[in-house]
Amino acid sequence: MDITSLFSIGSPASIQPSQDAAALKKLEGSDSLFDSFLNTAIDNINATNSYLSDAENEEIKWALGESESTHDLTIALEKASTALQYTVALRDKLVEAYKEIMNIQI
Question: 13 near 7, Cβ under 8 Å?
Answer without folding.
Answer: yes
